[in-house]
Amino acid sequence: MATAAGAWHSTRTTLEMIKWEHSIFALPFALTGAVLAAHGIPQLPVLFWIIVCMVSARTAAMAFNRLVDADIDSKNPRTSMRAIPAGTLSRGFVAIFTAISCAIFVAGAAMLNHLTLILAPVALVIVLAYSYMKRITRWSHLVLGLALGIAPSAAWIAVRGTLDPRIVVLTTAVLLWVGGFDVLYACQDFDHDRAHKLNSIPQAFGLGGAFTIARAMHLALMALLVWLVILFHLHWVAAVGVALVGVLLAYEHTLISPTDLRRMNAAFFTLNGIISVVYFLGIATDVLLHRA
Prior knowledge:
This protein is mainly α. The chain has helices at residues 2-18, 27-38, 44-68, 70-75, 83-86, 91-110, 114-133, 140-160, 165-186, 190-195, 201-231, 236-255, 264-290.
């Protein structure tokens, strides 16, 4: 019984470490890419392996980030109780967990097609490299955006075996969406980042400047989503979905300000999850209603 209880505790701690429930951020955009590529619902085995690849890649990225940032997290009051600094998971366990997640991702890519397998190491480099970016550049938020942004393009390749330049527009849009909200999220660590000389847009431009840059990213995101509707000759349902995304983004920006970050979790986690689902439902419904 004690062994079972210990195993459950370790499992729960691991799931908390990787924030598995936040897979909803990127997964709907990957599914959007798959639906656009298939012009409908992809074949179920393809859909299954896309989901396996998405979840395993994100899991590897989150675990690796916790491993690489353990010393930084231990010095930040906001993150000091994460699994490794708190001693609830060991570095060795997290390293093995990361390696297993990477292996599952590569195996999933191999089950899709030749090009996904060839590109699997490139995708892993992108999603893992983010963990080092705050040590190198203030624009690390865009690298995180790219890590999630490649999801729709990867899903397109999984379905078609080739890459269409049109889907890169959605990749760029997701890059800006994620980059923008990560800029806002990083505002919480403004004092810590300056004290420890960690790079971020808030640290470089101040909180006011960070909010301005995040808004600019999200305005550009909306322009790209409109362009995507035009590129794929989508109809009114997709347009309504894009409009709802715009409303939700605007609301997100009213929840927090440079002087009031108290509702950051509502803006960052709840609303962004809703935004990704709303967008997917708008595009998928449009494609299914109007496919030839």
